[in-house]
Write a structure and sequence with these properties.
Layout (H helix, E strand, L loop, with lengths): L37 H8 L5 E3 L2 E5 L3 E5 L5 E5 L4 E2 L8 E4 L4 E2 L1 E7 L3 E6 L4 E9 L2 E10 L4 E10 L5 E3 L4 E4 L2 E7 L5 E6 L7 E8 L7 E9 L3 H12 L5 E2 L2 E2 L10 E4 L7 H10 L4 E4 L21 H13 L3 E7 L2 E2 L16 E6 L11 E2 L21 E4 L2 E4 L2 E3 L5 E3 L18 E5 L1 E2 L2 E3 L6 H16 L3 E5 L13 H13 L8 E4 L12 E3 L2 E2 L3 H8 L3 H6 L4 E7 L7 H13 L3 E6 L1 H6 L3 H17 L4 H7 L11 H5 L7 E7 L2 E9 L3 E3 L6 E8 L4 E9 L11 E2 L2 E4 L2 E4 L3 E2 L4 E4 L4 E5 L7 E6 L4 E2 L2 E8 L8 E14 L2
Parallel strand pairs: 21-22, 21-39, 22-23, 23-34, 34-35, 35-36, 36-38, 37-38, 38-39
Antiparallel strand pairs: 1-2, 2-3, 3-4, 4-5, 6-7, 6-12, 8-9, 9-10, 10-11, 11-18, 12-17, 13-14, 14-15, 15-18, 16-17, 19-20, 24-33, 25-31, 26-30, 27-28, 27-31, 29-30, 32-33, 40-41, 41-54, 42-54, 43-53, 44-49, 44-52, 44-54, 45-48, 46-47, 46-53, 49-50, 50-51
Helix pairs in contact: 5-6, 9-11, 9-12
């Protein structure tokens, strides 16, 4: 065992040692002549970051003191005298491969702010400790042992049981105090909050594991008041060498820029710039994110010349032109992915792609064999594919050939059936017995570069070349959830962080807005905010069922982006988007509209949706909406989590829709109930009856009707002058609708018609009657001037008495 050699106590200027003798390791050597003069003790007091009293070590963090016994038992004492005793749990420990736990026998402060931990079996861990403004960094520099260590607890601090715990950032808050024990290198894992022993008590713990490197590793301890935490964490990040992006000069977690919604522009071509700019400006967007189709393929990330004819020059030109109009732009991509058309896969697959199970070929096969035999059962290979998007795929890799198989035989004759040879541009060829058959792992429909290999760095270099050249202002890491082999899922915390660090390290501009579909404890430092969903189909339900995590993000000090919401579906009406925008107010969140220029021209409500987004963003950022109103807009927890359509419909009374409107010159939120759409078949008659249930008193009634299908020039009208009769009251519309068109009848508002060939809403001079109903169940009848020739859908709209003015 190599002994630690030291010559003085410590040299870094922070605070000093009060007892020189405790600064020296028994295994080292000392210059005794330096240790016994008063002048030298005073000098050390001005130069060390640890203070020693007896065999106890302490660090002053301003608002708190962290002390540690000679056996590494930590205590945190706050300025108000509150102390969090550590019991007998040390700050550091090791675990051997056989499960044996090793505890420190001695913890000593040594030179250059070195902390040396000697374990009960003689293993030694060397830490460099950096003291900053309300934080400590524990850098595990070296770990020496003659035993096989599987896990090292880099740092753990016991905390009160009643404290509120934020698991992503390994933080507790209580009584205006906040303590964080945070990973500062990607190989550091948040172990969880409890010891798992008996008795069990809360602890903030970080560890490393042998398979990803026990050392070097860094843990950060931040202790501050709740109000000061957002000032302190960026200081810690910079001292630790962590990402700490500044947006507009402000730390990304609190920058005003992350509160702004953004435009997710898909399938965009340089020739469409003017149209895209008009859409972005109408929506008030200050950021445009370009879908990954800006690249020819994931992997080499060459710019798609079909969309950008001059390659990277075209893309740079587009992004500069957006910037000239006050709009930043960024790049979306799937960081772990390799496209089927990328040269790292075809015509010869790179050996550094992610492989799964492996088994030898039982016998020689010819170039056209459709059964590939194995000597034993090919366990570990996917036997079926239920979800082509999520599953690991059924691709075999033999020599340089890729093969798709239909089924696996786990009984004799063992092997793969229904094989399609020479896939993805590879060449079919004969193969000799005992040649390895690998499963080439897929995720989200793509193959993957192995994050343990040099290929990841080469892929990141390719992405960074373009991002740096065009000066991208936003990077969106998508598809970071399924990484490596399926059996590596437990190590996602490591691989996702490694993936994102590999790319971010190569981006020149360190102050980019980073966002992703998921976040690890390490990547939290990189990410400005976290997206929750990419909404489609029933947008309300999609949002509701994923909203259970919203408070989790807030608890973990990670601003929320409520997600992307598709604007391709022409059956998605403006109220769906307004429901989402309600929730941006409720959760103080940005959102994104996902749309192509072509889809924008085809959607009947593009202008109305963009106008609403701009209004709501301005309103939310202004901060004038009261907390009481924001709470009223929140999603009821009963609506969380995935449900069947039947289950959703049974819970509609818990849904709260509000419409931003004006009454008597006062702007405010009107509560509206949008009833379910009723499907109406084409008919030889001109009426259709259905049920209306009114559960709130004095409710005014309106209705919406749409002719199914898409508009085609030359088609005649399919619905003429639709009206709704309820309790002898007739809600009449003069609309004449063709396929795909809508008519909206709102009480007290101009009647409106939408849908191609209209490029926006067509509003009548006629205002809808105000028909008010008491609580009850009613039969309502849809009528028209003549029988309708196409199937329709119709719904009632209930305007309640609830109106909440905006101050």
């Amino acid at each position: 065992m190599t002994q630690v050699q030291i010559s003085t106590c410590c040299h870094t200027k922070v605070s000093g040692c009060s007892k020189v003798q405790s600064c020296f390791a028994k295994g080292g050597f000392v210059k005794k002549s330096l240790c016994f003069t008063t002048a030298f003790v005073v000098l050390l007091t001005a130069a060390c970051n640890c203070v020693l009293a007896g065999d106890s070590i302490s660090w002053s963090l301003g608002g708190a003191t962290v002390s540690m016994t000679g056996q590494g038992i930590p205590t945190v004492t706050f300025a108000d005298g509150t102390a969090w005793p550590g019991g007998d749990l040390p700050a550091f420990q090791l675990e051997l491969t056989d499960g044996t736990v090793l505890l420190p026998a001695k913890v000593e402060c040594q030179e250059e702010n070195q902390l040396v931990v000697t374990y009960s079996d003689g293993s030694i861990a060397e830490y460099k400790v950096t003291l900053g403004d309300s934080f400590l960094l524990f850098h595990l520099q070296k770990l020496e042992s003659q035993q096989d260590i599987s896990k090292a607890v880099v740092l753990q601090i016991p905390v009160p049981a009643e404290a509120e715990y934020a698991p992503l950032i390994n933080t507790i808050e209580t009584d205006e105090k906040i303590v964080s024990v945070m990973p500062a290198t990607v190989n550091v894992h948040v172990r969880g909050r409890t010891t798992g022993g008996t008795p069990e008590f809360p602890v903030l713990a970080l560890d490393t594991v042998a398979r990803h490197g026990l050392a070097p590793a860094t843990a950060a301890l931040v202790i501050s008041t709740t109000s000061d935490w957002e000032r302190v964490v960026p200081l810690m990040e910079e001292a630790a060498g962590l990402p700490s992006p500044k947006l507009g000069g402000v730390w990304n977690k609190i920058s005003p820029e992350i509160r702004q919604s953004y435009f997710f522009l898909t399938y965009f071509k340089e020739s469409q710039f003017d149209d895209a700019l008009a859409l972005a400006e109408r929506g008030g967007f200050k950021m445009i994110l370009l879908l990954c189709t800006w690249a020819k393929s994931h992997g080499h990330y060459e710019v798609n010349t079909e969309y950008y004819p001059d390659g990277v020059a075209s893309l740079k030109r587009v992004m500069n032109k957006f910037r000239d109009h006050g709009i930043k732009s960024g790049l979306h991509f799937l960081g772990a992915s390799i496209d089927v058309n990328d040269s790292w896969l075809t015509p010869v697959p790179d050996k550094r792609l992610v492989k799964g199970a492996q088994i030898p070929l039982a016998q020689e096969i010819t170039v056209d064999a459709d059964f590939i035999p194995t000597a034993t059962a090919p366990t570990g290979f996917p036997t079926e594919e239920t979800n082509p998007y999520m599953d690991a795929g059924r691709t075999l890799w033999i020599d340089d050939e890729l093969i798709l198989y239909e089924s696996v035989s786990l009984e004799e004759p063992y092997g793969f059936s229904g094989c399609r040879r020479g896939q993805y541009g590879t060449a079919a060829s004969p193969h000799t017995a005992q040649t390895p058959i690998d499963h080439l792992v897929r995720a989200y429909g793509y193959f993957m570069h192995d994050l343990n290999s040099s290929l990841s760095g080469e892929v990141a270099d390719a992405l960074a070349r373009t991002a740096n050249e065009v000066d991208a202002q936003m990077i969106y890491f998508d598809g970071s959830e399924l990484l490596q082999r399926p059996e590596d899922a437990d190590d996602w915390w490591y691989y996702s962080a490694l993936l994102q660090k590999t790319f971010a390290d190569r981006i020149t501009n360190k102050d980019i807005l980073y966002q992703g579909s998921s976040t690890t404890p390490w990547a939290w430092h990189l990410m400005a905010r976290n997206a929750s969903a990419d909404g489609h189909d029933d947008l309300r339900a999609y949002l509701e069922e994923r909203s259970g995590s919203f408070d989790y993000f807030k608890l973990n000090h990670l601003p929320l982006d409520i997600g992307w919401y598709y604007a391709y579906d022409k059956r998605a009406t403006p109220d769906m988007y307004e429901y989402i925008l309600n929730k941006t107010i409720a959760y103080d969140s940005s959102m994104s509209l996902q749309m192509s220029v072509d889809a924008a021209h085809a959607h009947p409500f593009t202008g109305e949706i963009l106008d609403m987004i701009k209004q709501y963003d301005e309103l939310r950022v202004s901060g004038v909406v009261s907390q009481e109103m924001r709470d009223r807009m929140r999603i009821d927890p009963v609506l969380f989590h995935k449900k069947t359509e039947e289950e959703r419909n049974a819970l509609l009374d818990y849904r709260r829709d509000f419409h931003l409107t004006e009454k008597a010159g006062q702007r405010g939120f009107q509560r509206i109930i949008y009833d379910l759409w009723q499907d109406v078949p084409a008919s030889n008659t001109n009426e259709f009856a259905f049920e209306l249930v009114v559960k709130t008193p004095n409710t005014a009634i309106g209705f919406d009707v749409q002719v199914n299908g898409d508009y085609e020039a030359g088609q005649g009208p399919a619905l003429t002058r639709p009206s709704l009769e309820v309790e002898g009251n007739l809600l009449e519309s003069e609309a004449i609708l063709s396929s795909g068109q809508y008519a909206f009848y709102r009480p007290g508002e101009p009647l409106a018609q939408f849908g191609l060939p209209l490029t926006g809403g067509s509003y009548s001079n006629v205002v809808g009657n105000v028909t008010v109903l008491p609580e009850g169940t009613y039969t309502v009848t849809l009528r028209a001037a003549e029988p309708w020739s196409s199937s329709l859908r119709v719904r009632t709209v209930q305007y309640t008495e609830e109106f909440y003015p905006i101050p």
